Amino acid sequence: MLRSILFFGFVLLMWSCGPDRSSKTEIMFEVSWDADLAEEAQHGRLMILLSQDDSAEPRFQIHDGTQTQMVFGIDVHDWRPGAHIAVTDTAFGYPIEKLSSIPEGRYRVQALLNRYEKFDLSTGHTVWLPPDKGEGQQWNRKSGNFYSEPRSITVTKDNGTLSIVMDKKIQPIEPSENSKYIKHVKMTSELLTEFWGRPVELGAHVLLPEGFDEHPEARYPLIVFHGHYPHDFGGFRTTPPDPDEEPVYSERFGIEGYNIIEQQEAYDFYKAWTSSDFPRVIIIEIQHPTPYYDDSYAVNSASQGPYGDAITYELIPYIEEQFRGIGEGWSRFLYGGSTGGWEALAAQVFYPDEYNGCFAACPDPIDFRAYCLVNIYEDKNAYNYPGQFKSLLVPGMRDYLGHISSTVKGQNHRELALGTKSRSGQQWDIWEAVYSPQGEDGYPVRLWDKYTGDINPEVAAYWKEHYDLRYILERDWEEIGPKLQGKIHIYCGDMDNFYLNNAVYLMEEFLESTDNPYYEGEVDYGDRAEHCWNGDHDNPIWISRLRYNTFYLPKILSRIESSAPPDADLSSWRY
Questions:
Q1: 17 occurs within a structural domain
Q2: For every residue of 318-350, which 3-state class applies, written as one string?
Q3: Is 259 within a domain?
Q4: CB 339 within 8 Å of CB 465
Q5: CA distances in angstroms from 261 to 235, 424, 534, listed in the order given
Q6: What is the pLDDT of residues 296-305, one digit of tens each?
Q7: Contact present, 398 and 405 (Cβ < 8 Å)
Q8: Residue 430, domain extent
Q9: Is residue 573, in this structure, part of any structural domain at all?
Q10: Both 357 and 304 in a single domain?
Q11: Digit-coded pLDDT (tens) for 392-423
C-alpha cells in the first residue's frame, strides 16, 4: 500500500512539472472578403498565415526549412461576399498542426484565398482547381487571389475570435516583350482543350540564333530546355551587369553578390551566342502550367490530360514551322535539370523517334524503388523507418555534408495545409497528379495517406507500369532500345539535396546491363555535388547551373554528326 501511495504521489509530481495544460490557446479567426473584389461566390483554399519574422509578408514565408512560419488551411465552397467563415481548431496547420497549439506571443497575421474554378473534364468529372494565371502556379503570387494586409496580433490563452477582412487582390503579371533574339509564342492546344473542357494554351520562349533574319534559307536544329515555369527566357542578357545593382548574398552557395554573377553569366552567354563560331540552333523554354503545378511533366496523364502529345505533336511542330526548324527527329534534342531532367528523359523514352538525345541532370526519381528515400513497392509507410521499439522520420532534404533540413512527413504536411486532393501546387502533389490514376471524384488517387504516410500498393503498381522510367526501359528494351541507343545521358551529384542520386544508381545498373543493343550513353556523378549538378567537373555548381545552354552543345553537335541521315540538312544552319 505504501509503495502504491508513493507511486501515485510521484505521478502527481511529474504531472505538475510537465507541460502547462492551461497554456492551450483558445483562438479562432473569422474571415470575410470585400464585395468589391468579386460579384460571384468563391471556391478555394482559405489560409491563415502567421509569422514572427518581419522581413516579408507571411504568405512569402512558408517553406520546408526550419525557419518556416505557420499556415492553417480549410476548403471553402460557395462563399458569398460579406459572409463570415470561421477558421477553428479543425483547420490543418503546418508546421504546427492546430491553432490551439500556437505558442503565446506577438505575430503578424494574414489571410489569403487561393481561388478555384470549375473544370468539366472530358472524362465526365467536374473538379475545382486553381488555374494558372501566368505566375507559374504560385498560390502566394497568383493573379486574382484575395488577401489581407498583414497586421499584428498577440496570441494569448484567451484570445477568442479575431476578425480578418480580405480586401486586396493580387494584380496580373505583365507579359514578357519580344526582342531581336527572344520571341514569345502561344498556341491553343486542341488536345488539351478537349480534355479540360475549356481553351488551354501552350507557350514557349524562343531564343533565335544570330543571323536568323539574314539567312532566310537556313533551317535549324531545335533544343528543348525543360524545367519549371519560365516567365521569360532565362540566363540571356544583352547588356553587362547593372553597375548600380545591390549585391545579394546567396545563402545556398555562401556567395556575396550572386545576383551580379548571374547577370555576368547571362551577358557572357549573349556574347558567345552572337559570336562568329557559335553553333546556330534554336533553343526553347516551354510553358505548360496546369491547375496542379507550374508544369505538366510533359507526359500524358489521367488527371492532367495529354500534355506529352500536345507538346510533341502540337507545340514543337508549331514552333518549328514558325521559326524554320528542321522538323525531324534527328534534329531535336532535350535537356533540363530536376523536374526538367525527368521531363527530358521521359520525353525521350515515350517518344523515342521524335528526339535524338536527352541530357537529364539531377532528374526527379527515375526509379520508384528510390522515390527519394522511399521504396514505394516495399515500404509500408513513407514517413517513418519502422523499428520494433522506435521509429525514425524519413529525411526529405540535406546539404552536401548530410545535414537534414526537412522530412518527407513535414514536406507533405505543408502541402496538406496548402491544399487537399493534390491541389497544393507543390512537389509531392504534382507527382501524384502526373503518375496516379484518376479517382472516382476526378482527382488523382493518393499514393499514400497524406496525413499518416501509409502507402497504397495498388497505386504504387499503377505508377510502376506507367511512369517508373527505369522499369519501363527494362520492360520494353527489346522494342525501344534500338531507338534509344546513344541518346540517354544522365548526370547527378552524389550528395543531391533530395537524394535523387539513389534512383540514378539503379538506372545506371540497368543501363550498363543492356545488350542487343548496349545503350551507348552516359551516366556521371559529381563528387559531393548538390542539386542540380549537370555533368560539369571543371566548375563549381553555382557556375555550372548557369551554363546549361552552352554545356551540352558540343555533345549535341557530335551526336548530329554521327547520327544524321544521309540526306540531312547539315549545311544551311552552319554560317
A1: no
A2: HHHHHCCECCCHHHEEEEEECHHHHHHHHHHHH
A3: no
A4: no
A5: 11, 33, 19
A6: 999 999 999 9
A7: yes
A8: 369-465
A9: no
A10: yes
A11: 999 999 999 999 999 999 999 999 999 999 99
